Amino acid sequence: MRTPAKIVCLFVFLFIATVFCTAFQKGRPAAKSAFPYKQAGLNIRQAAAHLLSRFTYGATPGQIDEVVTMGLENWFNKQLEGNLPDEGLQGRLRSYDAIQLSNTEVLSKYPPGFVVLQMALKDSVISKDSVGKAVDKKAYNEQIQAYMASKGLKSDQELYKQFISQHILRAAYANNQLQEVMSDFWFNHFNVSFTKGECAQFIPAYERDVIRPNALGKFDQLLIASAKSPAMLYFLDNFTSQGAAVPASQPAMGMMMASESPQKTKPVNMAAVPPKNVPGLNENYAREVMELHTLGVDGGYTQSDVTQAARVLTGWTIYPISSSGYGSAMKGLVAKIGENNLAAKGFVHEGDFLFTPNRHDKGEKVVLGKRFEANGGYEEGVALLEMLAHHPAAANFISRKLAVRFVSDNPPASMIRKMAKTFTSADGDIRQVLRTMVNSPEFWDAKALRQKTKSPFELAISSVRAVNADIQQPYQLFTWISRMGQRIYYYQAPTGFPDKGQYWINTGSLLSRMNFGLALSSGRIPGVVVNLAALNPQKGTETAGKALVSYSKVMIPERNLDMAYQQLIPLLQVPVPAAKMNNEAGKTTAVSQPVSNKFSGMDAVSGAEELNEKKKEVVPVVNNNMLAQVVGIIIGSPEFQRR
């Protein structure tokens, strides 16, 4: 009788174990299938190269081998997690002490110029008549600088320089490359600019505390964090927006009569926006949060919705983080009420954000059909932003922008629909949207390969990564990036830099790109050290043509470069003399005319057939100048400038 009992117990155990395991498996996320790159005819190395071209700032020598060994899916998942150790990068960043300062500390150490002048006037260091009218400007500036030194103050330009330098180092050396790429994407999406002085001092903390931590998280959290940041509050002027005294019984301004038809709002030049007829109401942020941050220009909202949203967001301002200048406007109010009494009076204080109920429009509002009852407060602003973040138009708009960034300038609608569906079902989880994108056959399609044109920033960073450059003075690269047409953090419009190749490519920009490549490869960018010989797998004297082939395989891996060789070999017949190669970076002009002629349109370079007919021999590599010319031509080539 014991044996049957044991058998029964065994079956019961197996049954329970089966049920438990089944339930456990249901609770786990389904295993991800392999990326569908084989359907597009790619081998694993080509697929790895494509991943690196999209989700990093460019492959470093040997990185394709690392990705293949690790496994493509495993590498991508680790990038999505964004928590790889980065000791090497942190070591490079240690000297940039300003990038860790709070907004309050920044304003006390790197005050805006007008604040310095106010302090100097108050302390009778300068006279009011001398401001902007000094006869001896040099002596005047020296006087101001001496005063700043006595007070322990530093120029705000030094703050900007540190911030830009650390951004370049992060892009070039971070192991968590996808986090850096996405931080750049979102900063561009929620653009603020150094060109607007009111927000400039707050931009370092904006990127550090708002953009980067949320770059791979939930979209609504990123949206709300950006709305509360001093940089955005100042950039789009919401920090001064306040409502009129609207009786609670008064109907919302956005309630339209049945005969009225909504008109979609059009893009507006902020500088040309006339004063509104509602005292104190500023619509700049409300407009851009719909048009640029969430719904898109065709998102179905009306001008009435913009006005209503602006009313909802009245009272959103900054906490008094400075005794003078920016952030001091609310200091008297907070002092009068008392820090400990703010919450009881309806104020909301979170970090550098402050909601002031006395500035808030307490009337009823209607935005996109959603009614906000009268006598609301801070919570209705959060509700508005959550509604916009979860709107179907936002799912489509954000998905399309991501597809443009990572796939092509004109991504397939079929893939955007899949991404938007995930955006909605995953509550705006950006990681899941990216997973949907990279698991879509459209991502791997031959039509998407090498279809994106690198921006000047991407070109510069991919170049230093491709040659394993040691960046000791990153601001020197910023000078070159600006010269090529992209002055990062200085784009004035709230749209951010365009993400399409046609914006970046013209004959003049191509010449600047070629000159950058030659300057980098010849070691003529101060503080950027390049060892080209260390990259050469052949380790010996070879012809320029052979060097072109071997270095191209290192710098532009896993591509068919036969056509590129035909295009580039004629340029090797235009030697760059040593004297001109040793000119300062901005004067690399020896190849200007040939490059301008042969790279027009980023397409074929004429002259290959003529070269073959004449059977000219390529100049042998006998010195570093010729090797630098080879690598510089590769960087300036159409193939390297595609990703």
Description:
The protein has 32 helices and 7 strands. With 643 residues, it is mainly α. A 3-stranded antiparallel beta sheet has the order 1-3-2, with no helix packed on it. A two-stranded antiparallel ribbon has the order 4-5. It has a two-stranded antiparallel sheet with strand order 6-7. A hairpin with a 2-residue loop joins strand 4 (365-367) and strand 5 (370-372). Helix 26 (507-521) runs antiparallel to helix 32 (624-635).
Strand element count = 7
Rg value: 29 Å
Mean pLDDT: 84
Q: Which regions have little confidence, pLDDT < 50, spanning 5+ residues? A: 1-32, 246-277, 577-618
Largest sheet: number of strands, sense, barrel closure: 3 strands, antiparallel
Order of the strands making up the biggest sheet? 1-3-2
The number of helical elements comes to 32
Q: What distance lies between the first and last C-alpha atoms, to the nearest angstrom?
A: 74 Å
Shape: globular
Structural class: mainly alpha
- Helical percentage: 40-55%
The percent range for strand residues is under 5%
